[in-house]
Amino acid sequence: MRKKLTGVVLSDKNRKTRIVVVDRLVRHHRYKKSVRVRRKFHCHDEKEISRAGDSVVIVETRPMSKLKRWAILQVIGKEE
């Protein structure tokens, strides 16, 4: 079972590569406050279907380069 995450495309400047930001809320262990954790993933986009601002689902895949370990599975919402 491959991991799936939902995020927003931050950059589409590279060819066939998108940088996707995944936000999640984590409860601080001592202070019990919700803290937003933001992580960037380099994702493969073979058909170049996504643009900056789109919501996408990414899936874990084999290493394609030094940083690319994820691929875009589908585009959920388009930027307006």
What keyword list fits this structure?
five-stranded mixed barrel, mainly beta, OB fold (Dihydrolipoamide Acetyltransferase, E2P), 80 residues
Question: What do these coordinates show?
Answer:
Helices cover 0% and strands 55% of the residues. It has strands at residues 4-11, 17-27, 34-44, 55-60, 70-77. Strands 1-2-3-5-4 form a five-stranded mixed β-barrel. The mean pLDDT is 95.
What's the arrangement of strands in the largest beta sheet? 1-2-3-5-4
CATH superfamily (homologous) name: Nucleic acid-binding proteins
Number of strands: 5
Low-pLDDT segments: none
Q: In sequence order, what are the helices and strands, one letter per element?
A: EEEEE
The appropriate CATH architecture is Beta Barrel
Tell me the overall shape: globular
Instruction: Give the fraction of residues assigned to helices.
Output: under 10%
Counting structural domains, the number is 1
> Please, how many helices?
0
Task: Could you tell me the CATH topology label.
Answer: OB fold (Dihydrolipoamide Acetyltransferase, E2P)
Which band does the percent of strand residues land in?
over 45%
Radius of gyration: 14 Å
Secondary structure layout plus pairing:
Blueprint: E1 4-11, E2 17-27, E3 34-44, E4 55-60, E5 70-77
Parallel strand pairs: 3-5
Antiparallel strand pairs: 1-2, 1-4, 2-3, 4-5
Brief overview, please?
With 80 residues, the chain is mainly beta. It has strands spanning 4-11, 17-27, 34-44, 55-60, 70-77.
